[in-house]
TrEMBL record:
Keywords: Oxidoreductase
UniProt cross-references to InterPro entries, sorted A to Z: ADH-like_C, ADH_N_2, GroES-like_sf, MDR_fam, NAD(P)-bd_dom_sf
GO molecular function: oxidoreductase activity, acting on the CH-CH group of donors, NAD or NADP as acceptor
Domain named Alcohol dehydrogenase-like C-terminal: residues: 181-316
Transmembrane segments: none
Protein name per its UniProtKB record: Enoyl reductase (ER) domain-containing protein
Domain Oxidoreductase N-terminal, residue spans: 27-124
Length: 371
């Protein structure tokens, strides 16, 4: 194969003051699609990549920074003028790095671009294609999404003992963004792997809520309905929540804090309600943390790398036993258009669905090219 000479890239142009402006070509567009010359004369340690899949993650919003804003971030920031990035899968089309060869498929943080150059030391891992599993699994049910759900519950939520001990009453678990990638997996692991006695989900539409109940939640409410809190209280019927897996912060977290069991645990996994508008993630009911002796644990999946292999084994078994759905939980959008520029203009639009309620259920992936 002859090597590409240029790359089509989505560049971060204007830091949004609030909501992202996902359409390109407007004066205040958050992103612009550009072409850049690709230097295929690789430095030692570099890989030339062809992008295959891009993951859509809420946390990418937290990477976007104005030039000069060096505020604390747990992940590398992207500044205006730089190419936007995502977690993704790519194929090595040329290697000048030890341990990598043409044809390898890697998982890493990669560019919103068709082709790019990456130092091999930034690769997360090589994808094991020997089992012939669909590549999309490695960004969803066997990737960071499921690891976040599993390790959030078992480590930060301290529910590990329920993996083997099913003798007593299982925990009461509540999860927000329950129809999302992480949330829908939290529901299934809680119910079908850890034996939760009650699983309560919150989601943004009646249709998504029904799907979450189909996956195993005993109740999923639409948090856009004014009576969602009454629905949860009626269902709890005097019971309290042992573990709240918080993906959104704000009003929902404030409500749940007041209904936690003594010594309950909050897995502080995400605060998407505030990613575009930090004020929306503010929390009331702090006193319940004291009065109920709650533990609120900030959770980052990357802190648990040494536990990934064991978690993947348990998740693979759960998938084989049909305790975790793979068919209906992955939504892949294939990029189409007359030109690479047209195709890549769709990437910010697809990603923005995460913040608007338009996102389909489960994990939303973008397929850029066939392997
Ligand atoms: P996702 O759930 O697939 O997509 C985001 C979902 O959030 C949307 O589908 C939407 O669902 C919901 N949402 C958006 N705005 C909301 C709002 N204002 N209030 C309530 N819900 C809202 O994304 P994901 O990848 O699974 O991520 C879920 C959360 O986990 C995010 O907060 C993310 O940052 C976090 N996360 C953390 C880690 C970690 O290591 N700590 C790792 C991965 C993800 P509805 O349509 O139902 O509203």
């Amino acid at each position: 194969m002859s090597l590409p000479t240029k790359s089509t890239q989505v560049v971060f142009e204007h830091n949004p003051n609030g909501d992202i402006v996902p359409d390109t070509g407007k004066p205040d567009s958050t992103f612009a699609v550009k072409e850049a010359k690709l230097d295929t004369d690789l430095k030692k340690g570099d890989l030339l990549l062809k992008t295959l899949y891009l993951s859509n993650d809420p946390t990418q919003r937290n990477w976007l920074r104005k030039k000069g804003d060096d505020g604390r971030n747990y992940s590398k920031s992207i500044y205006e003028g730089e190419v936007m990035e995502a977690y993704g899968l790519a194929k090595v089309i040329k290697s000048n790095a030890e341990g990598y060869k043409e044809g390898d498929i890697i998982s890493s943080r990669i560019q919103w671009a068709d082709y790019s150059v990456l130092p091999a030391n930034e690769v997360f891992n090589k994808v094991d294609t020997s089992a012939n599993l669909p590549l999309s699994y490695f960004l969803s049910v066997l990737g960071m999404t499921s690891l976040t759900a599993f390790l959030g519950l078992t480590e930060a939520g301290q529910l590990r003992k329920y993996l083997s001990d099913k003798s007593g009453k299982g925990p009461v678990v509540c999860v927000s963004a329950a129809s999302g990638a992480v949330g829908s997996t939290v529901v299934q692991i809680s119910k079908h792997v850890l034996g939760a006695s009650k699983v309560i989900g919150l989601s943004g539409s009646d249709e998504k809520a029904k799907w979450v109940e189909k996956l195993g939640a005993d109740l999923c409410v639409n948090y856009k309905n004014s009576n969602y809190q009454d629905q949860i209280l009626k269902f709890l019927d005097g019971d309290y929540i042992d573990v709240y897996f918080d993906n959104v912060g704000g009003e929902i977290l404030s409500f749940v804090l007041a209904h936690m069991a003594n010594f309950g645990r909050i897995v502080a996994c995400g605060a998407i309600s505030g990613y575009n508008d930090p004020k929306a993630a503010r929390v009331d009911n702090w006193f319940h943390i004291i009065a109920q002796c709650l533990t609120v644990e900030g959770f980052l999946v990357g802190q648990y790398k040494e536990k990934f292999p064991e978690a993947i084994d348990i998740l693979t078994k759960a998938i084989k036993e049909k305790k975790v759905d793979v068919d209906d939980s992955i939504h892949v959008e294939t990029l189409s258009g007359d030109s690479e520029k047209q195709k890549f203009a769709k990437v910010p639009q697809i990603w923005n669905q995460l913040f608007t309620g338009e996102k389909p259920k489960g994990k939303l992936l973008i397929k850029v090219a066939d392997a």
